[in-house]
Design a protein that fits this description.
Elements (H helix, E strand, L loop, with lengths): L10 H12 L4 E12 L5 E6 L16 E6 L1 H7 L8 E11 L4 E11 L2 H17 L17 E6 L4 H9 L6 E6 L7 H13 L5 E6 L13 H8 L5 E5 L7 H5 L2 E3 L2 H93 L2 H6 L4 E4 L2 E2 L11 E6 L2 E6 L7
Parallel strand pairs: 3-5, 6-7, 6-8, 8-9, 9-10
Antiparallel strand pairs: 1-2, 1-4, 2-3, 4-5, 11-12, 11-13, 13-14
Length: about 400
């Protein structure tokens, strides 16, 4: 945006014009915190001055300088750094002119400690505090579910990390949902928090947070107290895969499972599926082995049956030959035997016919019974018994009124 030379601007117009250009002048500046003042709403107003050596000389060698800084409360709460006079910090943001008084201030988006000793000190203090609260206790770690499928992934879509992860995760029907997030420096804190909160509303089996290795300075976002508490309170187990030089990032200590590389995280997710696959393969081999044994047994039975039939066939042929050779010899004797048997059967039929009770009934005889038992003597009956008299064409029921003995 260029100034129109022939136009006369009001002060507010010109300041607005300047601020429009200034907001694009994003920069990181390093300095020593001077005066610090907290506003009623929690906004922080402070000065950053040129850092000096122990002798009092500006470290940059370019003389002393100072700039007014502002950090809004919503941003200040993110980074867990207390602004105090003398603390050396790196601030990222852009300049802005406050129109009512014409004051230029540097509006900070992020702040981080600049001295390596201060960074280590802050790490150790926060680690001790969170450890005392039990946020790193192994007893509180949740087990990674067996056979996970719905995977939430937070990482940068740029670079090799996401490709390593996706290239190594197995083809087990995983449903991977990814959120692209910054993972470098303090500026990543806000992105990571937003990503975790977004995944809270999703149906997941496990949440994965990964990035490549780096120094303590580059991993400062992963030592953030708010992020650690988000990890511990997340509704499903969390796996963190962050490479590091020496000190383990606090997010990795708080996670339910920590791995050193994205590839190791992918292998961890594959593990239970691969074990299941091995079990299925073992069952498959066992089934095939048993099937082969059954086939062999049936083949053995089939061979035995074939041999038995061959033997039976030989025996039948032998019998047939014997029958052929002896048929003429025995046929006459067999015919006589049949004739004698036939005569005997006829005699038996005549005897059976003569002695058939029905024949006797037709001749005028009858059979008397009581309760189905044939009466052979008057001693077997008594007065008022019901007697059945069987004749040729029916049965007569009668009551005994009198008994006479011979």
């Amino acid at each position: 945006m260029e100034v129109e030379k022939d136009k006369i601007y009001s002060i507010s117009e010109f300041v607005a014009f300047l601020n429009e250009d200034l907001k694009w002048m994003k920069a990181c500046i390093i300095g020593e915190v001077g005066e610090v003042k907290a506003g009623p709403s929690g906004h922080m107003y402070f000065t950053l001055k040129e850092a000096v050596s122990p002798s009092g000389e500006p470290i940059s060698g370019k003389g002393s300088a100072m700039i007014n800084c502002i950090m809004w409360s919503s941003k200040y709460r993110l980074f867990g750094i207390t602004l105090e006079p003398g603390k050396k910090i790196v601030a990222f943001g852009s300049p802005e002119i406050y129109a009512p008084n014409g004051r230029l201030s540097f509006i900070c988006d992020t702040i981080e400690l600049a001295g390596e000793g201060d960074i280590k000190k802050q790490y150790d203090e926060l680690k001790k505090k969170l450890d005392k609260e039990g946020l790193f206790d192994v007893a509180n770690k949740r087990a990674i579910p067996k056979y996970p499928q719905k995977i939430g992934v937070i990482t940068s879509k740029q670079g090799a990390v996401i490709h390593d992860f996706l290239n190594n995760i197995g083809k087990f029907g995983f449903n991977v949902k990814m959120i692209d997030s910054r993972v470098e420096g303090q500026g990543a804190v806000e992105d990571l928090l937003a990503s975790i909160k977004t995944f809270r509303e999703k149906d997941l089996d496990v949440l994965v947070i990964i990035r490549g290795g780096g120094s303590m300075e580059s991993l400062m976002a992963f030592n953030n107290e708010l992020l650690v508490r988000e990890i511990v309170g997340f509704p499903v187990p969390v796996i963190v895969g962050i490479g590091h030089d020496k000190d383990v990032p606090l997010m990795a200590l708080a996670a339910d499972k920590s791995e050193s590389t994205p590839t190791a995280v992918a292998n961890l997710l594959n593990e239970s599926w691969e074990q299941a696959l091995l079990i299925l393969e073992r069952y498959e081999r066992e089934v095939l082995k048993r099937y082969e044994a059954i086939i062999e047994r049936y083949q053995e039975i089939e061979n035995n049956i074939k041999l038995s039939f061959q033997k039976l066939h030989s025996n039948i042929l032998g019998v047939r030959l014997k029958i052929g050779s002896y048929s003429e010899k025995y046929i006459y004797g067999f015919s006589n035997l049949l004739l004698r048997v036939s005569e005997k059967i006829k005699n038996i039929e005549r005897i059976v016919t003569i002695n058939n009770p029905e024949r006797q009934l037709k001749l005028g005889y009858s059979i008397s019974t009581i309760n189905g038992k044939i009466i052979k003597s008057v001693k077997e009956i008594k007065i008022e018994d019901t007697m059945s008299v069987i004749v040729a064409d029916g049965v007569v029921e009668t009551k005994i009124k009198n008994i006479k003995n011979n």
